[in-house]
Design brief:
homodimer, about 400 residues, Aspartate Aminotransferase, domain 1, Aspartate Aminotransferase, domain 2, 5-stranded mixed sheet, 13 helices
Amino acid sequence: MSRTVADKKITANPAGWNLASHVADLEASIIREILKISSQPGVISFAGGLPAPEMFPIEELKSAAEKVIDESQSSALQYSLTMGVPALREALAQRETEQGIDTKPDNILITSGSQQGISLASNAFVDPGDYIITEYPTYVGAILSFNFNRVKYAPVEMDNDGMLVDQLEDNIKKYKPKFIYTVSSFQNPTGISMSLERRKALVDIAIKYNVPIVEDNPYKDIRFAGEDVASLKELGGDIVISLGTFSKICAPGLRIAWVNAHESILRTFEKIKQGADMHSNTLTQLMINEFIRSGKIDDHIEKLKVNYGKKCQLMLDEMDKQFPSEFTWTHPEGGLFLWCELLESMSASELLPKAIEKKVAYVYGAPFFPDKKGDNTFRLNFSNASFENIVEGIKRLGEVFKDNMP
Amino acid sequence: MSRTVADKKITANPAGWNLASHVADLEASIIREILKISSQPGVISFAGGLPAPEMFPIEELKSAAEKVIDESQSSALQYSLTMGVPALREALAQRETEQGIDTKPDNILITSGSQQGISLASNAFVDPGDYIITEYPTYVGAILSFNFNRVKYAPVEMDNDGMLVDQLEDNIKKYKPKFIYTVSSFQNPTGISMSLERRKALVDIAIKYNVPIVEDNPYKDIRFAGEDVASLKELGGDIVISLGTFSKICAPGLRIAWVNAHESILRTFEKIKQGADMHSNTLTQLMINEFIRSGKIDDHIEKLKVNYGKKCQLMLDEMDKQFPSEFTWTHPEGGLFLWCELLESMSASELLPKAIEKKVAYVYGAPFFPDKKGDNTFRLNFSNASFENIVEGIKRLGEVFKDNMP
């Protein structure tokens, strides 16, 4: 070796590095763009999927942090098991069982947000070119995880009761999908919640063809209108891999969620998670465990439901007043989102810059469709903005739309 | 649909689900087994890679949790950016720059433990069947991540100065690897630290062939003997993707680590991370930021070095007294591990059950070799056990070995 590092004539060239072929297909999420927009001063953002900041149980979580560090000392800060902290897995198994899903701690795997649960399912099942079934439109973050594994999509359209099951059965026969991905309650992005009859039919078809259902259920506890409906997991048992999270009912920054599934599939998820991030945060798992066992979580959820229900109703009332009557939109009974259709000839992506000029933001619909169609649709989040900003923001949006009618 | 869910004659059959083909190759980590063994009552474990529990900065981290919740309120609990919390990225860029690596915040991506950094590198570069270069033996957790992407290994042997660079260059020419993975300082599992000359030669070769180096550097701050040596990142600049972590110098349960790399490759890592877990823990990122900015981290590292240096020396002294003189072992100048070779004809995996009978545990060496060879080697961790248990545990191990000499 006559050359030395000091000889800087030869330097690194990252542009010449040869990346994995699946990387070429990956697009950055519009979420990143959304969060940038949201943070511009003066912009009222209905774009992100952020919970109401004024509702976070700040003092309760501060006390929980103090308590678990005082009580668990070094073990609150030490490495822990890939499957999750045993006390939290036990608390969750009990909670799920109380909610109608017969669950043992061995059925629970703690994940770093439900995004990781989606990623684990995708990584466990999908070889490049395999089909999966999603709703049409579906959660944009799930599309990110699925695209990483180079899936092909066999999307199924929805009506106000959820996935159209005849189309579902046709797609299963035609495409032999690895799994069915559904946000069954108060769907992101549409706010639609699947009816009980539709859920039963979905489970029956899944069992008939032995196709697992990945039920992504982050919003189920936030029902502020209508009657409770059993989850797919409750109805379908082992055919369902169910994803739950504390992001919406406690705080997303703690990154604690869970998978409830048959032990055999969790063994596979566990092996993938070991290589992905070893285990989820020990401290915040213990904090959530404390929040559950203290019983404070249920009071908190009741308060959230009242707040989100009022915000949703206010947004709908203001939309009635301010939006062109030719537009249509969903009327959710829970969750964080509603979904709006412009006239067929209008483009929600082209109107977004005009909205931002008026200091208001939404997410246009195309990224929620695996084939990027649906450009006349957009999603509104009603949980994050204040009551005052909902009124003002919808007024601004109404002006943008009225000024740009074809 | 005439059948209903109540008709339970047809049920789910998870055993019939068709998993991704890469899943068939995945083996569970022995880490899981290790942690089970460690937790059996009365067993003195030198098996895990756990930091000293008595050294965790418990009160400092409790104060940090209180302070960041008081000051940041809801933003300590809210969703945050995939790249990481800006304040922590700035603190890290400054800290890296002070340590000789010219770094801007845009060069920093926060990860959920360094395990995620390894996983991101593997996912970004490796198509099934691609070669990568590792040390021989190498970190078992890295093998987990790499196997997920179905790599082929072109391992390079080490002497006491680290990777043999002639073998490295031969392997690069022959296998055209996607990257070179190295634990450059106080390697896991061997405790070997690469010499300055060897580092310079490695960087030169990497630049010559434009093969990126993934420098996994979790132990670099824990040098308790010998002189500081520049990191590969300091020597090589953009050719190096460097992984740092707070797991060993603060607390692993907080799951906060970072990648320091050229911006172009971080864009790819960011896209993969969005789909993997969206972002790392907001609260514990802010806690670590507070721990750095208060200056307490440097005092803490000084105390750790003294503690780990004493424990390592004690273990070496006791091994001199208790182990058969035919065995050889490394004499690390830092880190958490040392590495021992039995006689060629002996099997560390066959002796482990006998050790556990005597209530002492280690990790046998085979899982650290991509080809599972090296069955006459094992790894000892000296950071986790108390001084008293190091003396007692090495005595027990010495008895096991003396009783089982061929």
